[in-house]
Amino acid sequence: DYIKQKLIDVAIPKANKVRELVKEHGDKVIQEVTMGQVLTGMKGVVGLMTCTSKLDPEEGIRFRGYSIPELKEKLPKMHDDGEPLPEGVFYLMLTGEIPSDDDVKYISEQWALRAQGIPTHVYDVIEALPKDAHPMIQFNTAILAMSTESQFRKAYLVGMDKKDYWDPTYEGVMDLIARLPIIAAYIYRRVFHQGRHIQADPSLDWAGNLAHMMGHDSEELRRLMRLYMLIHSDHEGGNVSAHATHLVGSALSNPYYSFAAGMNGLAGPLHGMANQDVMHWLNKLKREIGSEDPSEEQIKAYAEDTIRKGRVIPGYGHAVLRKTDPRFQVQLDFANKYIPDAPYIKLVNRIYNVVPGVLTATGKVKNPWPNVDAISGSLLTSYGIAEYPIYTVLFGVSRALGVLTQLIWDRLYGLPIERPKSQNLQWFIDQVD
Ligand code: FCX
């Protein structure tokens, strides 16, 4: 595997640098932390090193320095006017370099090959769950069930030099990413299509295959799936799914355990589950108003009512971003290009026109603008994937690309177990008395 050789060449000087920083500059003060920060979710506290992507509050996400528009230009694509292949952003996050067409083809082939070995007990475990168990329960359970395949644990028991931990981590990550679309599509077909499963087509790319196995096989939907898998892949290290994966991985839990932890976090309504909740909110709005085509005035009144009842408007706001999420914008661009007249897209635009004003009027929401989840479900629904409980699973398949490449880097850097200090309430009171 030439990628492993490439990785080790790139990583050795960087890992040396990390060691040097700790040894030579370990005492350097890098930040002041306020009580408010600690008590409101550690926002802005630098407590992690993540190199796969960086989130700017105004500009949004950059993957190894590249913004989404730049990736659209630079990463290999299936069609000249098309969306970059997620294999490319994986390669970029892993190695730090823009891949060639051959690199992307190699990853695609590797994943198609590695996808084949899912043990039967994984399907048995899924089948043991009730069909109406939420797809994220089924997805996360399947990820844990797949950890019987972990090379990391086996190699660890045989006995392995610390500096080699990254190698079985890489193997596990490659297997896991290869298999996630099959698991996601299996759950989707089990829950929503009477268990009529569709075999993978090894000639297809990773995201195109997911669309194919879900049974939504138009070229346009494959394009959407490539875009979806690209933009949800990473969002710096402090978001719940990335941080949880990193934290659990720091105990040398294998990639399956680590990723399952991240996915349990993604299943929260303030994080990845918001993409499903947006559709729930939207459909409830239509039902309560009694119209398929609510006006801006009606949407505004409904949004104000949501706030009055002490609930959040899903798909809006962000812990770091302070502008419209570029991941929202790129999906809107896709919709405007292919399906400008879709009723759900019209609704998304109407909501975009009024909700920021409603949130600003509360005087407390730090970012009134839409995030990635405000449109992803409406796009999928417009293409026939209307069963919204599957949306967070799709987010999760994509998120694997970022959090698991970072996990490989955690091991390449030789990062230790994470163990921040906690204090009780009295300690905080004593700080001001
Ligand atoms: N609707 C109503 N109230 C909101 C809100 C929204 N969309 N966004 C923030 N607020 C409220 C908060 O609940 C908080 O209220 P409180 O002071 O009474 O507790 C206040 O505004 C300040 O919160 P703020 O600092 O702006 O936001 P946080 O960093 O605490 O939280 C999230 C960020 C994203 C959790 C928040 O904006 C939210 O709940 N949004 C809706 C859910 C959502 O879309 N999540 C997906 C985010 C992301 F894109 C992803 O992970 O997928």
TrEMBL record:
This is citrate synthase (unknown stereospecificity). Keywords: Transferase. The lineage of its organism: Bacteria, Pseudomonadati, Bacteroidota, Bacteroidia, Marinilabiliales. Belongs to the citrate synthase family. Pfam families: Citrate_synt. The keyword DNA-binding does not apply. One of its GO terms (molecular function) is citrate synthase activity. Gene3D superfamilies: Citrate Synthase, domain 1, Cytochrome P450-Terp, domain 2.
